[in-house]
Amino acid sequence: MNKLAFVAALGLLAACGDDGDSSGIPADCNPLGGQGCMLPWPSMAYATVDSSTPTGYRLAIPVGAMPVNVDGISIEPASLNRWDGFSAIGPMLAMFPNGVSSTGLPTHQNPEASLAATSPIVLISMKTGQRVPLFAEVDQNTSATASRALIIRPLARLETSSRYAVAIRTSVKSADGSELPVSPAFAAIRDGTSFSHPRFAGLAERYTEIFSALATAGVDKSELVLAWDFVTASDQFLRSDLTAMRDDALAAIGTAGANLTFTATTQPNTGQTFKRYLGTFKSPDFLTAGETDASKLRRDGDQRPLMQGLRDAPFAAIIPKCVETMPLPRPPSSLATVCSARPRSISTITSWPISPSSTA
Fold first, then answer.
1. What pLDDT, in 10s, does the model give residues 24-38?
2. Contact 267, 211 (CB under 8 A)
């Protein structure tokens, strides 16, 4: 499932198994949301303390909370539960029973409005107190007003290994212009009362710091419809797949690429090229099914990228015609600079992994 479909499914999903607690909200669901099982998102309702990670957390999303496809099969959360926090570039989502009005939301045309003292939606770093510029919109991928999520999109990459608070004020209205309802769980947190749900206590204990950070930013809890926090993933985690593959690949290719070979077949030239080649080169293989649509990153039992030998990867080598008049030496970076200055010049790429069928 692609990212857009997954985001939509987060909002639509509401059918998780009921564990019998008196709230009526299934145990695997976030008690703050009401309308969607995993909403609001991202939320520390789906993280657990883990002292072995750089952030001190690890995601713990139960399969019972995950969206279900048309065949009734839940998306497997194992790949998400490797993370030690949430994405630093992803959107925040919330949903309300009567939908959300777009009136007054900060837009991409005026992001400064999201930094104003009266902004209806606030995203702040709980470490620095700094506000994050954003815009917000109402999901238009469904015709059902009540299923249209509020999508909050940061306009700056968030800091990694950092804690953020999201606040939606009462100035945000329902689609019909009425007041947005406050979920019973959030009302209980705001008012210091109890609520019966297995995920409630773990969330509630975070709110002394959340409300304090928001108050410092000028947002009092009395004007909140909903607020929550999340922690972003660490640089170490975000780089871990790449650095693991780099280390294994360097060992596999040998000194100065001694274990690598290639094949190349000359292709007809165009008016803009000096030489064109199609071929294959040996490449460390981390994919489960080559370049097919079903292919994904192969992992071992510890979820580390797993290399299985070398594979033949296709490439195209295109040498532009400008080399005939360009003085020596002719490094690829210089060729790219010279040729890119010409209108509609051919891309200068000396080792370009693409499908041979796309270079007719």
1. 899 999 999 867 899
2. no
Q: What residue has token string 């995950």? A: 66
What confidence tens digit (pLDDT) does each residue in 62-105 have? 999 998 888 988 889 998 999 999 999 999 999 999 999 999 99
In angstroms, what CA-CA distances link 67 with 25, 35, 146, 234, 279? Answer: 16, 14, 18, 26, 42
3-state SS, residue 110: coil
Q: What share of the chain is helix, strand, coil (3-state, %, to 5)?
A: 25, 20, 50
Pairing mode, if any, of strands 92-94 and 47-49?
A: unpaired
Query: pLDDT tens digits, residue range 115-165?
Result: 999 999 999 999 999 999 999 999 999 888 888 999 999 999 999 999 999
How far apart, in whole angstroms, are the C-alpha atoms of residue 358 and residue 360? 6
d(CA 319, CA 56): 50
Query: Which of these, 162, 164, 163, 210, lies nearest to 186 by C-alpha position?
Result: 210
pLDDT at 331: 66
Pair of tokens at residue 224: 């909140």
- From the DSSP assignment, how many helices (H) and strands (E) are in the chain? 6, 11
pTM of the entire predicted model = 0.79
Q: Closest by alpha carbon to 139, among 187, 93, 185?
A: 93
Q: What is the dihedral of CA 282, 288, 290, 291, to 10 degrees?
A: -130
Strands (E), 99-258: 121-125, 134-138, 150-154, 163-169, 224-231
Number of CB atoms found within 10 A of residue 163's CB: 21
Measure Cα distances from 272 to 341, 343, 344, 345 in Å.
14, 11, 10, 7
